[in-house]
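Worked Example 4.2. Consider the chain below.
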Amino acid sequence: MIVVATEDFELYHEAVSALRERGVTFTTVRPGEELPGAANVLVTASDDAVGELPAEVTHIRTTADDVRKAVEEALAVLRGGDRRTVIGVDPGTRPGIAVLSGGMVVAAFQVPLSEAVEAIRREADDAVDPLVRVGDGARLQSAQIVNDLEDVPVELVDETGTTPYLGSGARGMGDVLAAVNIAHLEGERVDSREIEPTAGELQIIKDRSREQSPENRSIDESLARRVAAGELSVEEALEEHRTGGTDDAESVADDEN
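Applying the procedure from the previous section yields the following structure tokens:
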């Protein structure tokens, strides 16, 4: 059983709400009171006074802002499984992100590529032994995510077969479900991923820049390579193209086609 014992009213409110939302059996006591015999986990604020606890009780100190992670850690203790936090990522222009704790899915997102690393870092911060597993498809996007993730262990996973069949009513869930499957697969530890963009990938970036350009002009290949490497967004490349006065023969030729 999970026990909440805190003088912090905000933490008390958030913890009780989160536990009720998850349908978890729990109880509350005042700090310092004797714990129920069935207690397995004690949740308190960092400054709550806590006496000596039985060896079988896991003590989790948290804040109102981090209560969701504390609840997931408490549930992992109750399940008796691996408490490690694994974050699976299905890369793309809108990556699917799944957060697993003790093998259970505890959170899921789908965000623009520009927000993916921030979302992953937010979930990894203060998590129990975090590990990020990134699918090896969508080469350019996966390389951006891997290269921008510092100070977090990352594995590159063969994502073949991770996208499930989606039945009626499940439209739009494919990337998130693929991220769940990726999180369950062991991969190769990597610190970076270097990708040489193909001519076709560069052309896609140029075409995207033309679609976003008010002047219907595409960026040149050097800027497209920087976009592919994650150094610039398409918007930033277009701005540099304009302010730099770039109008090379290649760009003009592209516009004439």
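Confidence is low (pLDDT under 50) at residues 246-250. The beta strands are 2-4, 26-28, 41-45, 58-62, 85-90, 96-101, 104-110, 131-135, 154-157, 188-190. Compare this with Example 4.1 before moving on.
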